[in-house]
Inverse folding.
């Protein structure tokens, strides 16, 4: 289940409701009816949902799978936290009669985005006092009565406001232990401008969060990954999974798909995450694509010995125009000077537009992405930053892996299993249909293997007769 604020038939956000979609594989989604409706003078902002297995709320005397949604109700005068409960697995909700369950006195219009988890015998909520740069931590026995426990204040990048905090416990690579992570999104104030998510590994005792250090760690080195939400209920021994909003508040309401296709924003691919202490800066949240195998459609290219060579691929006949590619480079010298490059370009045969990226095996091992050669919106919007890079030191084992998921208007890349990752949107005038991948100047004995798969269109079977996949069903829901 993926609930999200949803503006039906709108290309900008105003009258927000909670949309609802369901999936068996986290890629193929089916729109459901609106989950929670707002009123004419209010909006449903971000929040989260939990399963009240033990009926702590009292809403579910005859079941162990009742769902409780916790969300921010926004009005002209204040933001408060409300709950709604569902008997049918989250398809329909009833708003709690004694809402709100949490409000400030005096009231505030910068108090939002509750994320609720279970800790021992209590519920824990983290939410943002947005323009005070504070994440408040609250506890409750029943999801209805909340007590303030502590604050996490003025950490990392501040920007102009905190938003959408997440608190999650995830496994540590090479260990049987798990560790807590507090993620905080900021907007604006990202190093590249606009919105971004930062995270803090640390310890949580049920009431207080303590980071391992004062460093601000950025979750994505691109510009289009914001406010990711972790799914509730996964065992802490398993990799935790999140999906983010793939856009940036600097330009999200101006991107050209609004006028041409009737939509503005999309979500990232689902990411599986864990913590690893793999770089000189210490802890990293490793973020890799969730299992893509359910949507593989065909093998487009396999080369186990590319060396200093090139692969040129025409995928114009692939219905989805979506592909996954993986490049593995091994035997990179780590005790002498490494050299060479690995580059890729996706281009349009009709307009010559292109999106590109690459890795330098020498120096500080920078990886770069560019959307500079995309026409139209990218040329005219001053905030649509067109180049991104990150240092990605060569592993001690002399290996480097690049993965990428390319769709019609978004590219996501993952370096070394997700040690670094980036999300980049683009809006070409002509569809991209050609891939070129080339390696050059590599040290002797370095080997390069490449695999490219076509991906299925996960929406094609839901298209109407006119070929359009329409949004959430708005009839038949409970408007209360």
């Amino acid at each position: 289940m993926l609930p999200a604020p949803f503006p039906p038939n709108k290309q900008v956000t105003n009258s927000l409701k909670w949309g609802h979609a369901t999936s068996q594989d986290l890629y193929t989604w089916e729109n459901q009816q609106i989950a929670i409706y707002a009123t004419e003078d209010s909006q449903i902002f971000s929040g989260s949902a939990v399963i009240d297995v033990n009926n702590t709320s009292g809403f579910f005397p005859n079941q162990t799978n009742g769902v409780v949604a916790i969300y921010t109700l926004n009005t002209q005068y204040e933001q408060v936290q409300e709950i709604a409960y569902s008997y049918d697995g989250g398809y329909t909700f009833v708003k709690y009669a004694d809402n709100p369950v949490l409000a400030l006195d005096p009231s505030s219009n910068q108090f939002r985005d509750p994320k609720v988890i279970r800790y021992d015998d209590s519920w824990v909520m983290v939410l943002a006092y947005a323009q005070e740069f504070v994440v408040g931590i609250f506890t409750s026995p029943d999801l209805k009565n909340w007590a303030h426990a502590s604050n996490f204040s003025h950490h990392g990048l501040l920007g102009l406001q905190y938003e959408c905090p997440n608190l999650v416990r995830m496994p540590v690579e090479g260990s049987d232990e798990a560790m807590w992570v507090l993620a905080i999104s900021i907007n604006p104030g990202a190093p590249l401008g606009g919105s971004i998510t930062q995270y803090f590994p640390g310890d949580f005792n049920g009431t207080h969060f303590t980071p391992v250090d004062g460093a601000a760690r950025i979750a994505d080195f691109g510009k289009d990954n914001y406010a990711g939400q972790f799914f509730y209920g996964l065992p802490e021994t398993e990799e935790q999974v999140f999906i983010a909003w793939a856009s940036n508040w600097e330009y999200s309401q101006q991107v050209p798909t609004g006028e041409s296709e009737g939509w503005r924003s999309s979500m990232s691919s689902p990411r599986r995450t864990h913590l690893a202490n793999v770089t000189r800066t210490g802890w990293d949240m490793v973020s890799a694509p969730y299992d893509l195998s359910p949507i593989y459609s065909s093998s487009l290219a396999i080369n186990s010995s590319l060396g200093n060579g090139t692969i040129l691929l025409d995928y114009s006949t692939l219905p989805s125009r979506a592909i996954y590619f993986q490049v593995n480079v091994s035997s990179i010298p780590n005790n002498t000077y490494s050299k060479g490059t690995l580059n890729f370009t996706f281009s349009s045969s009709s307009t010559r537009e292109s999106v590109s990226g690459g890795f330098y095996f020498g120096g500080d091992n920078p990886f770069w992405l560019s959307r500079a050669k995309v026409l139209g919106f990218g040329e005219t919007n001053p905030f649509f930053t067109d180049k991104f890079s990150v240092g990605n030191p060569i592993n001690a084992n002399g290996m480097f892996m690049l993965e990428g998921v390319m769709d019609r208007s978004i590219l996501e890349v993952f370096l070394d299993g997700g040690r670094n990752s980036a999300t980049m949107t683009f809006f070409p005038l002509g569809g991209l249909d050609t891939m070129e991948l080339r390696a050059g100047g590599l040290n002797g004995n370095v080997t390069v293997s490449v695999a490219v798969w076509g991906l299925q269109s996960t929406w094609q079977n839901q298209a109407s007769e006119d070929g359009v996949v329409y949004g959430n069903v708005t009839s038949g829901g409970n408007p209360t």
Observations:
- Residues 473-480 have pLDDT under 50 and may be disordered.
